[in-house]
Design brief:
Elements (H helix, E strand, L loop, with lengths): L5 E3 L10 E5 L3 H13 L3 E5 L2 H10 L4 E5 L7 H10 L6 E5 L4 H9 L4 E4 L4 H14 L7 E4 L2 E4 L4 E4 L2 E3 L3 H12 L7 H8 L10 H13 L4 E4 L3 E4 L4
Parallel strand pairs: 2-3, 2-4, 4-5, 5-6
Antiparallel strand pairs: 1-3, 7-8, 8-9, 9-10, 11-12
Helix pairs in contact: 2-3, 6-8
């Protein structure tokens, strides 16, 4: 009997979400990844063993696999190599606590499409996932529109009244999180969880710095502070 897979599904929406498989034996990290990616609109399955990961990847139609290297049962190199040998072309993003050119070369030689060394920034992880999906011809990520603002998730581009607004990667990620839940109150803790590093232990008020920068660039009317609760992105004037 096969062990159960942990499934995470984004709420609502008629558009078929991208299906991602996370194969990661660090359960806390795997859950954090799943929660964050689900908030981005992906459907996510999680397994913690290499052999089970290979079975799931072979039998189910995933759009992308996030694959740790150090796994029980079968390591990530072998899982990826077995997938490629069987003719599966699903994009693979490999994760490892190791560092060094030899490890990266070995991962890529087995057929991995990209490589990320722990600890990593959540912003970088999401950017890599989106890039791999685009590169492998998956349908485009939705463009979010809130009043005069246009947030193009795939191109990482923001426009106001048709004019591009230059944002840093972190500023874009904060705005994207607010835009995904436009009209809703999003707490500082929720923004921190989805945008910052998983290991971040700094002051939650760092969010205020980025919200202030976004207001300067977008205009003060778009991001409303809900005292004691968080922020809400609205259409503005």
């Amino acid at each position: 009997m096969h062990p159960p897979v942990t499934r995470h599904r984004p709420p609502g929406g008629a558009r078929r979400p991208f299906r991602l498989l996370i194969v990661e034996d660090e359960k806390r990290l795997a859950l954090s990844l799943a929660k964050g990616l689900m908030a981005e609109g992906y459907a996510v399955d999680v397994v913690h063993d290499g052999r089970e990961g290979l079975r799931r990847a072979t039998e189910d139609g995933y759009d992308l696999i996030v694959l740790d290297i150090m796994l029980p049962g079968m390591n990530g190199y072998r899982v990826c190599g077995a997938l490629r040998a069987a003719g599966h072309e699903v994009p693979v993003l490999m994760l490892t606590a190791k560092d060094g050119e030899y490890d990266e070369a070995e991962g890529l030689d087995t057929g991995a499409d990209d490589y990320l060394t722990k600890p990593f920034s959540y912003v970088v992880l999401v950017a890599r996932v989106k890039a791999l999906l685009r590169r492998h011809g998956r349908s485009a990520l939705p463009v979010l529109r809130v009043g005069t603002l246009t947030v193009d998730q795939g191109a990482q581009r923001v426009e106001r009244d048709g004019a591009e607004v230059a944002l840093t990667a972190k500023e874009f990620a904060v705005l994207e999180e607010l835009a995904l839940r436009a009209g809703e109150v999003v707490s500082k803790a929720e923004i921190l969880e989805h945008v910052w590093d998983f290991a971040y232990e700094g002051d939650v008020n760092i969010i205020e710095v980025y919200v202030s920068a976004l207001r300067r660039k977008l205009g003060a009317g778009h991001i409303v502070t809900v005292r004691g609760a968080g922020y809400r992105l609205v259409a503005g004037e």
